[in-house]
Amino acid sequence: MKKTALLFFVIVLIISVLISNCTQNSTGPEEPRNTATITPTFSVTPTVTVTPTVTATPTSTPAPGTVSGTLSGLPASPAPYTVYVDTDINEANGFITSSAGVYNGSGGAQAYSVPSVPAGTHYIYAFLDLNSNTIPEVGEYFGVRGAAFPAYPGAANVTVNGDISAIDITMAAGTATAGGTITLPGDGGGHNYNIVVDLDGSGATTDDFVTVVSGTVSGPSLPYNLMVPFPITFYVYAVVDMDNSGNAPNTGDFVGIYQVLPSGNPITITDLSITNGPYDFTAIIMP
Ligand SMILES: [Ca+2]
Ligand SMILES: [Ca+2]
Ligand SMILES: [Ca+2]
Ligand SMILES: [Ca+2]
């Protein structure tokens, strides 16, 4: 064998031995394997069943209707009457609806009917205007459903849901519910005066007059009594027409308002069984 071949043989032998050792190592005792148990994690989502809540829908809504009844306690005098439906007991600040007619003066009672009253709970009140001037005055007749004047109900008490009948109202003659004396700046004798119960204290707005008392002055002072048929807040003022020019005040007329010029103080009455006051004040000569 040549030297080169011998060397090759030796190298092959060494490599064979090395490979043999490596094989033995790889086939030696196995190392313990990781035996940890892998537990799968499952997320269980609860199944919630939602049951829809069904709310019963009302099948009817409140309906407007006709309110009818009888006014009783009326005097033996023919006169126009008006029945009001309102959110309060105060015709002068507006009302929901009304119905007017004429009482013929017999029997002391009058049937009434107010059509197309909106659904809801309302006050119902009536006025008999003996002198047909549309102004409430002492001796004229008033009534509110649920109480007899001077009493009145503390809350609206007539509920409308369709036609409603037998809403009877007891009427009674109104008395003076407020009064006082106006001191004039001179003798106004023989001149006409107007004393106004007004919601806002301004004669520029006349649709909020509650009542007006008119007459002729007889001296330097002017006592007055008023029929305020409602438990309300109002202003009182007076004009004496010193130049006989008419109702509108002008320079030289006597003017005044309870209690101080120019704005006055409001008056609130709640007891209609007495003459509230005295609400005295002093007038001046209009500049
Ligand atoms: Ca009103
Ligand atoms: Ca009247
Ligand atoms: Ca006014
Ligand atoms: Ca005048």
How is this structure best described in words?
The structure is a single chain. By secondary structure, the protein is mainly β. It has 2 domains: 109 residues, Immunoglobulin-like, CATH 2.60.40; 108 residues, Immunoglobulin-like, CATH 2.60.40. It contains 1 helix and 18 strands. The strands form 4 sheets. Strands 2, 3, 5, 6, 7 and 9 form a 6-stranded antiparallel sheet that branches. The chain starts with a helix and ends with a strand. About 5% of the residues have low confidence. The structure holds calcium ion (4 copies). One calcium ion (CA) binds next to loops. The site of one calcium ion has 7 residues, from loops.
Task: Throw out a few tags for this protein.
single chain, 287 residues, mainly beta, Immunoglobulin-like, six-stranded antiparallel sheet, elongated, binds calcium ion
